Amino acid sequence: MRVVRLLRLRAALTLLGEVPRRPASRGVPGSRRTQKGSGARWEKEKHEDGVKWRQLEHKGPYFAPPYEPLPDGVRFFYEGKPVRLSVAAEEVATFYGRMLGHEYTTKEVFRKNFFNDWRKEMAVEEREVIKSLDKCDFTEIHRYFVDKAAARKVLSREEKQKLKEEAEKLQREFGYCILDGHQEKIGNFKIEPPGLFRGRGDHPKMGMLKRRIMPEDVVINCSRDSKIPEPPAGHQWKEVRSDNTVTWLAAWTESVQNSIKYIMLNPCSKLKGETAWQKFETARRLRGFVDEIRSQYRADWKSREMKTRQRAVALYFIDKLALRAGNEKEDGEAADTVGCCSLRVEHVQLHPEADGCQHVVEFDFLGKDCIRYYNRVPVEKPVYKNLQLFMESKGPRDNLFDRLTTTSLNKHLQELMDGLTAKVFRTYNASITLQEQLRALTRAEDSIAAKILSYNRANRVVAILCNHQRATPSTFEKSMQNLQTKIQAKKEQVAEARAELRRARAEHKAQGDGKSRSVLEKKRRLLEKLQEQLAQLSVQATDKEENKQVALGTSKLNYLDPRISIAWCKRFRVPVEKIYSKTQRERFAWALAMAGEDFEF
DNA sequence: GTGCAGACTTGGAAAAATGTTC
DNA sequence: GAACATTTTTCCAAGTCTGCAC
After folding, report:
1. Closest nucleotide over all strands to A279 (CA to C1')
2. Is residue A78 within 8 Å of residue A130, measured between CB atoms?
3. Which of A9-13, A458-462, A545-549 has the highest mean pLDDT?
4. What average pLDDT does the segment A332-350 reach?
5. Where in the numbering of this chain does the Topo IB-type catalytic domain appear?
6. Which of A5, A67, A157, A292 has its CA 20 to 30 A from that of A168?
């Protein structure tokens, strides 16, 4: 079902993609064209190459509170008998216990990894006893956490207020830093608490123990002359360094994948805002190059070199289908997912004819986060022929583009345009699509609600292009039904109001006095109001249905140049709060400061 | 080229906050 | 003002891409 829906929406998208593109109007960061008001905060500050700051001062990260042992009444059972666990073993048991209702705990890999790591935390005697997860009973632990969550929900107003104030205090104390003389918000000032690793899809490491991070694991980054953050009492930092070519404040190595995690600034900070702005400027710059790049890769489909042909076909997919680059992954370390360059023969099927089109390529693979990408696309004949060639005498597990890597692809792109990489195409195509869609869908005479539907639809076209999917919300059916009930009720009200208006009209005709006239006017206004409400409700229903399995957030936050949306709001008199929430407006402060209603991507 | 570490962006799910209805 | 629905924010996993060593 989902696949069919996406396919249909994609077909519509392809059609709209045929609309001729308007010539680029190029704006340079800081140029008059793109700016309105001073935007001074967003003038690029002159740091030499690679330097991110002159001054960085902060309080260090906030650590998860120490483990609180379970109360005596909450027991763990093994083979039906209560077993008292050591604190270390109990803590890890609670990580599993609190997840009992979750699907993860039904997965064999998760269970196996958890049990394996749990046993490492046990004392020798515990290990002697606890030998099989199937004989473990965590239900009391689970219930304890469920009750605890429920108790939090029913706290009194005062108690809730107190908790809120405590959180705010924490935010004030650890949530900000000073960067080059300005106070900036930190994105994630809390060190990740210990728990069980929740890898997505068929992740081979799911269920493994994510160790508790101690100050001794943490590297602090701050300026030499600043007040060095105090480690928690009785502890010390792994290292304190002063590296102003990076933006992170603190870092540690996570125990499951052995990768580095960072404390970084919030997206509303100047530093993050500037990089986002730069990213969109690079994508805008691509507008001026894209025609030539397209003609070049088309020419390269006929190259004598296999490597060049593969690169040209891959680039075509990246451009046309907004596929990700697809870096190589170590097998066994993560779920088996692919992007463009790592596609295997088994991920594509060639159809000489399908859906009434010639040369159809069927893609079916798991992309980032194990989200399935399924698409059937008619391609140009040389692409089709090349794919046949690339697949010749290969097994299903072989790489489709065996002569291509993301590094070589990006090296090539860099030669075509300064700063160009595979991902820029995603940004470029997402933003240009939003702009085109808004132009095609918005009508100036529409109501605000209808304009917002148009905006969401434009946003949705982009999300579908980028394959941003979500699980259907669990409450979807029910809430849809509620909405339908509401619509039905409103329809009845409208019918009733219409009848009343008819009666009032007759009454006025008969009486012809001022009183009946004012009644008539009142009835007319009522009908209008109800009709408007009905229209709004049905718009809501349409939007909801179309959005069932599409996630709009990622494209909105990462791929769509906010200046396009802001300009649209200004042009069509839609309050920007209808499009961006408070945090989103803070994140896009740079764009709000500079985009006028005539901004063009 | 290839492998790896590091730094940063992008991603959906889950939790929390807020709004609506009875 | 409780119960439920919806929206917003937080969380942290999973990508991209660069630079360096060999």
Report:
1. B9
2. yes
3. A458-462
4. 95
5. 268-601
6. A67
Q: What is the DSSP code (8-state) at residue A302?
A: T
Answer for the pair A223, A54: CB distance below 8 angstroms, yes or no.
yes
A329 touches strand B (CB under 7 A): no
A507 beta carbon to strand B: under 7 Å: no
Closest-lying nucleotide for A327 based on CA to C1' = C16
**Mean per-residue pLDDT for A586-594?**
95
Residues of A (161-200) placing their beta carbon closer than 7 angstroms to any atom of strand B are: 164, 167
Single out the residue of A172, A218, A169 nearest to residue A192, CA to CA: A218
Chain B bases closer than 7 angstroms to a protein Cβ: 1-4, 6-14, 16-17
Catalytic-residue membership of A176: no
Task: Using the CA of A260, give the nucleotide whose C1' is nearest.
Answer: B6
| CATH no. for A290-416 | 3.90.15.10
A266 SS3 class: coil
Instruction: State residue A45's pLDDT score.
Output: 52
Average confidence (pLDDT) over A124-148: 94
- DSSP-derived 3-state class of residue A354: strand
**Closest nucleotide (CA of A471 to C1')?**
B12
Q: Among A11-25, A34-48, A129-143, whose mean pLDDT is lowest?
A: A11-25
Nucleotide whose C1' lies closest to the alpha carbon of residue A163: B16
Q: What is the pLDDT of residue A43?
A: 53
Q: What is the pTM of this model?
A: 0.87
Tens digit of pLDDT for each residue in A156-186?
Answer: 777 888 888 888 899 999 999 999 999 999 9
Residue A20, pLDDT score: 28
Q: Which of A176, A297, A428, A559 is catalytic?
A: A559
**Options 1.20.1600.10, 2.170.11.10, 3.40.1190.20, 1.10.10.10; which CATH number does A56-64+162-267 get?**
2.170.11.10
Strands A219-221 and A239-241: parallel
pLDDT confidence of residue A542: 83
Please say if the pLDDT value at position A429 is more than 60.
yes
Q: SS3 of A202, please?
A: coil
Q: Does A102 contact strand B, using a CB cutoff of 7 Å?
A: yes
- Within 10 Å of residue A34's Cβ, how many Cβ atoms? 23
Q: Report the b/e string of A531-564 with b at 16+ CB within 10 A.
A: eebbebbebbeeeeebbebbbbeebbbebbbbbb
In this prediction, residue A12 carries a pLDDT of 34
Q: What is the CATH number of domain A430-594?
A: 1.10.132.10
CATH fold for the domain made of A76-157? Arc Repressor Mutant, subunit A (1.10.10)
Instruction: Please report, rounded to whole angstroms, the spatial distance between the CA atom of protein residue A509 and the C1' atom of nucleotide C6.
Output: 47
Cβ of A275 near strand B (distance < 7 A):
yes
Between the CA of A447 and the C1' of C1, what is the distance in angstroms? 35
How many angstroms from the chain centroid is the CA of residue A58?
28
Q: How far is the CA of A478 from the C1' of C15 (A)?
A: 35
Q: Which nucleotides of C are covered by protein (CB under 7 A)?
A: 5-19
- Tell me what the pLDDT averaged over chain A comes to: 89
Count Cβ atoms below 10 Å from residue A527 Cβ, excluding itself: 19
pLDDT of residue A475: 85
Residue A153 confidence class, pLDDT cut points 50, 70, 90? confident
Yes or no: say if A197 and A205 are a contact pair by the CB < 8 Å rule.
yes
